[in-house]
Amino acid sequence: MLDLVWLIPAFPLLGFALLVAFGRKLGDPGAGWLATLMVGGSFAAAVAVFAGLLGLDGEERFVVRTLFEWIPVGNFSVDVGVLIDPLSMTMVLFVTGIATLIHLYAIGYMAGDEKFSKFFVYLNLFVFSMLMLVLGDNMLLTFLGWEGVGACSYLLISFWFGDEANASAGKKAFVTNRIGDFGFMTAAFLTFATVGSIRYVDVLAKAPTVAAVTATGITLLLLVGACGKSAQLPLYVWLPDAMAGPTPVSALIHAATMVTAGVYLLTRMNPVIAAAYDWAPTTIAWVGGITALFAATAAVAQNDIKKVLAYSTVSQLGYLFLAVGLGGYVPAIFHMVTHAFFKALLFLAAGSVIHGMHHEQDMRRFGGLLRLLPITAGTFIVGWLAIAGVPPFSGFWSKDEILAYAWQENKALWAIGLLTALLTAFYMSRQVFLTFFGRYRFGDPSPEELHAAWDARIAAAEADEVTAATAIAAAEAARDEAVTAVAVAEEAVVAARADAETAAAAAAAVDEASLEAARSAVAGAEDKDSKKAAEKALKELEKPAKDAEKALSAVAKAEAAVEAARAKVADAEELVATARRAADDSAATVDAVRRAAEAGRPRTTVVPLLEAPDSSGVEDHLPHEVAHRRAYHPHESPWTMTLPLVLLSGGAILAGGLNLPFAKSLHVLEHWLEPALFGHETHLELSGTAKFGLAAVAVAVGVVGIVTAGAVYLRGRGDRSMIEQPLLADAWRVDRSYAWFMGGPGRRSFDLTALFDRTVVDGAVNGVATLVRTASSGLRVAQTGYVRTYALGIALGTVALLVLFLSRAAF
Amino acid sequence: MIVAQSLPTVTPTWYLALGAVLFAIGAVGLLVRRNPLVMFMCVELMLNAVNLTFVAFARSMGDLGGQVLVFFVMVVAAAEVVVGLAIMVALLRRRPDATTADDVAALRG
Amino acid sequence: MEFVVFLIAAAIVVGGALGVLALANPVHSALSLVATLFGVAVLFVAQDAQFLAAVQVIVYAGAIVVLFLFVIMLLGVDRSDDLRVEPVVAQRPLAILSGVGVLAASLVAILAAGGDTATTTVRATATAIPTEEADAASLGRLLFTDHVLAFEITAILLTVAVVGAVVLARRPVRGDDPVDVEAEA
After folding, report:
1. Tell me: the pLDDT tens digits for B9-38?
2. How far is CA A511 from the centre of its chain?
3. What residues have CB less than 8 Å from A422, skipping those under 6 apart?
């Protein structure tokens, strides 16, 4: 059965190769199923090897299988081989198991993404690297896996690299990890220099003979490497930023597997740690403890659902380091396993929430999701209870073990651990209450949105005022036109009257007699021509009278026109008055709106949790996003996502059974791990009462945290903003100080180095050239071009030679 | 005669010394004079000094081979003068104002 | 008797040499050279090298110096040097130094050897200098037997020298005018 060990890394490697070649063709969701099957196969093989290992006796459970000789160079020989022992198999089992579930989950989560198959390519490569890390039988193979997971982490964090922030996060992770890698590498070099080999079999056997100084050096360098990979102070800064990657990545890499590699390394090298000075493991413990507390304080103030979990991971990893530093390898591995379950569960459930809430990640916009996302909520609550340390969930058993060890070894660290447990319970409860309980807040406008709405309303009212003012001006202009029209009409009347008078005078000038004469001329005319002439004459005489009549009617018309114009002026005056009233109304409206805004604007930027924000005045002016959110209906995730959640929650509940404290026979994990620990682990020697007392204290602390969070976030007591300080949200500005340092003094020292390179190193090279040039310029003077100087040189040389010969001659 | 009896004997050493003096004068002249033709003449002086030395040795060692050598030296000197003067002619034809050895300094640098 | 001859001849030789050195006009220098050559010829005769003396006069004084004078006249370099000026720094002192050095070294060598230049180291194949017949015959015999290779080579040398002189000194043929490097410098 042990021979099947090669299948464990082979399956994901095969998956990687197949997906690279055919991933595009398989597409969504075929590529995902292939990847899941491969990792599932790896898990099956792991179970088989585990069964095989169980078949061996306790002492023999330290098997090395070699595939081929990789680097034979003189007395440095590295093989590709695996070390099968309880520690590595424990890691392999939970890595492959959780990885399978996360692959399944990712099929649902990444559905519809255009780079679907590439995601699974990277995931399978990651699993392969992680397995090589854990299974490798020498430090170089472990380092290969170490670097591989670092590379895959970079690729996966910046998976959506179109957004610059994601790409930067990936780079940050890679560069920060590199610093740790340097520590690991140097430790490997030092180990080789001291022990002459980097195979674990040799190193662990010869570790007691290593000088304490060297062992301390190796330990501290390994600590540096572990700090980078497992995100402890001061190299933790990449993990919160790594949340930019897709949630399955966060779950797999940054919760369950890659970040545990540091702890695995330290546990594997425990004989070397045991051979070091006592302050070396104590340093490890303090690094872990301080990181745990630091990260927990930062998690309290985060608003992004994933960032809370990121800081929580840093904090829980701090617990692991704390345990390792105190010699408690068993509780460290125990808590690593339980943490892998519940943290992966929490991340995946958070991803389900994000998926269901249309990619929203801000917890202030959640609330009341318990009914809407039941399965997600249920599994998340299981994870919450586990991490808060509520019995009988697994987190309680493992965390309590660590606290018990801390009480026995170092009371100060116990106090730090306890405080961290309180904060853990608090911030996780906060997260659960904000997300799943309380009022459904997704449709609420945020304070910023409300401010924007009030501004819009005021702007609308002011716009109306402006329109009204223009209307007044228009009406007045019309009225003025009407007035001028009246004046024009009156002048027309006067003119018409004058015309009428002239016409009448002209009519009167024509007397009756000539008229009669003309008429009779017409009647008496004989032929046509004379008739025409007579008619023409008559017409001429009758013309003035007709003109007079026309003029009179013209006068009448003009007077009528004046009346009409006067009526128009009156209408225009009415219109002006109406416009003036309208303008006054709109000015009043603007004032009213301003006063309403004064009253209605939100007072703070703190999102109200318990009551809905008052948006009565500005419903029409809210931004579009609010309407979209209101129209949205959250939905539960598909079975590919919820099934892993359920399975993981089973693990979160039951994994406590690995190492129950009640009886020696229940210490399954402790017995199991003995062959890998070579007796260097600390043994817990507290009485049953002491353990029970400590457990009670831990549970009490957890309950206090939960209750406090409930009071603040469910009932609204106290002032939230006092707890959620900006300093904490910024994680004590560590990141910013790094940036300042690297940008400021760091940059200057880099510039100095560059200057040194330019002036000293390049200067030396250039200086040689300059020296040659100067020398030759000096020597050039000898080339005078004069034959006589050359002849002189010959002559003087000849004299010298002669003197030389003479001095040697024997006379 | 009284004068004849007290005259010193001329040994070959005297001829050698004379040759040395002649050679030295020729060397100094070569270095000091600027006119190329005069420099050539100083070279001839040096060659003559050598001839003188060879003949002195031939006589003192009783070997005619020395005189054969002088013969060859003269021939070679003649050839050398011919070629040298031809060069001078060619040089001065191209640059009529290069009348001293110092004017031919193109290889300066 | 030889002493007197030596003294006079030596005086002519040295005087002529100094004249070559010191006279400004090159024609005067050439004439001083002639004097030196004659003196050397006399010294040759005094040392039983009559043939060589004749050759000296014919070839050196008669041909070479005449050639010098031809060139002087042809090219017009008979302008006197200004011997008061020495453009090159330290040339004169160093020249005198080297001359004195050479002289001193040579004299030391000569005088230290003393009388060892005598007939103690005679070559095996040495030919004696004849005193009865003219040495031209034995010289000729030597040339054409022991030194015939050198003789032939010297003949070639002379031919080459003549050809070279003709090529170097001819007027440039039209179209065959190489670039004047010195004019550009």
Report:
1. 888 889 999 999 999 999 999 998 888 889
2. 112
3. A701, A702, A704, A705
Paired residues of A71 in beta bridges: A78
Q: What are A's interface residues with C at a Cβ cutoff of 8 A?
A: 784, 786, 788-789, 792, 795-796, 798-799, 802-803, 806, 809, 811
Could you give the residue ranges of the DSSP H alpha helices within A601-687? 624-631, 639-654, 668-677
What are the φ and ψ backbone dihedral angles of A72, each rounded to 5 degrees?
-95, 105
Neighbours of C (≥3 Cβ pairs closer than 8 A)? A, B
| Residue type at position B70 | V
Encode A588-608: b = buried (16+ Cβ within 10 Å), e = exposed.
Answer: ebbeebeebbeebbbeeeebb
Q: What is the pTM of this model?
A: 0.66
Helices first, then strands: H and E counts in chain B? 4, 0
Asked if residues A699 and A423 have their Cβ atoms less than 8 Å apart, the reply is no
Residue A525's φ and ψ, nearest 5 degrees, are -70, 145
Residue-level pLDDT at C121? 55
Mean pLDDT of chain A: 86
**Domains recognised in chain B with CATH numbers:** 12-95 (1.10.287.3510)
Instruction: Select the residue from A787, A789, A794, A798 to test the B interface by mutation, using most B Cβ atoms within 10 A.
Output: A787
Calculate mean pLDDT across residues C126-131: 67
Question: How does pLDDT run across A499-550, given as a tens digit for each residue?
Answer: 888 888 877 777 777 777 777 777 777 777 877 888 887 888 778 778 888 8
| Cα torsion through A109, A111, A115, A121, rounded to 10 | 60
A73: which strand partners? Answer: A76
Q: Is the pLDDT of residue C184 over 50?
A: no
Look at the block and give the residue holding tokens 């009278």.
A545
For the complex shown, is ipTM > 0.85?
yes
